[in-house]
Amino acid sequence: MLGTLINSASIILGGIIGLILGSRLSKNITGIVFQSLGLIVLLLGITMAVKTSNIMILFFSIVLGSLLGEWIDIDKRLNSLGEKIRRKIKIGNKKFTEGFIAASLLFCIGALAILGPIEEGLGNPPNILLVKSGLDGFASIAFASAFGIGVVFSFIPVLIYQGTITLLAYSLQSFFTEIMINEITAMGGLLLIGLSINILEIKKLKIANMLPGLIVVIILSYFFL
Fold first, then answer.
1. Over the stretch 123-149, which tens digit does the pLDDT of each residue have?
2. What is the mean pLDDT of the chain?
3. Helices (H), the chain
4. CB 32: neighbour CB atoms within 10 A?
5. Which residues make Cβ contacts (< 8 Å) with residue 184, sequence separation at least 6?
6. 8-state DSSP, 207
7. CA distance linking residue 166 with residue 180, whole number of Å
8. Which of 9, 74, 148, 208 stands the most exposed, by the fewest C-beta atoms within 10 Å?
């Protein structure tokens, strides 16, 4: 799990730098940086989403996953988790929860967050995660300058999420096929597009409630592709 540990460290370091710079940057500067990041996330999401080889798999995955997520109400649970952490460490920053959730979703959803841990779990050098570490480090600077210290704590779900995938890949090395990875990537891209809509403040979407779609797409890809 060396790659995931490095990734987590880059988020912490980038977040700290963002906190330092955030106090010196005007709202206009942080705003334009945040909008730029939103556009990059949108472009990345589109690039990933078009990797699907079966649009119906993607359709049923997002619909069924969203219904499941809405039933569980993951969005509410994540918000509660962020608030509990904020109260636990006695930080009064109102944007703590928003920054924690937005950064966690951004860092956990995507091709690199899936392929990187799989690569390391299969016994290869964590090259993908090293690249992701650089990207996440720069992204956390922008996020922390806009949302504050909540972004720094997003390393926790990254550590758990990527670490779990690494261990699963190590245990189930023959399970993930190239086609399945492409569909998972496409699903992650669709979620990133939704996240970019939130970042650009076009409309507020409950992206967290759509996360079960990542599980649904694995099941559908396994049985129908």
1. 778 888 987 888 888 888 888 887 888
2. 84
3. 2-22, 27-49, 55-72, 74-88, 96-108, 111-121, 127-147, 155-171, 178-199, 213-224
4. 11
5. 114, 214, 217, 218, 221
6. G
7. 16
8. 9
Q: Residues 57, 187: contact at Cβ < 8 Å?
A: no
* Tokens representing residue 128 in the block: 């993908």
Tokens 């599980």 sit on residue: 215
Give yes or no for a contact between 212 and 71, defined as CB atoms under 8 angstroms apart: no
**Chain-centroid distance, C-alpha 27:** 25
Please report, for the chain, the start and end positions of each structural domain, with discontinuous segments joined by +: 2-224
Rg (CA), the chain: 17
Which tokens sit at 68? Answer: 């499941």
- For residue 168, give the amino acid letter: L
DSSP, res 110: S
Condensed to tens digits (0 to 9), the pLDDT of residues 48-93 reads 899 899 999 999 999 999 999 999 988 888 777 767 766 666 555 5
Write out the two tokens for 184. 């998972």
Look up residue 114 and give its two tokens: 């899936």
pLDDT at 181: 82
Query: How would you classify residue 201: left for phi > 0, otherwise alpha for psi between -120 and 50, otherwise beta?
Result: left
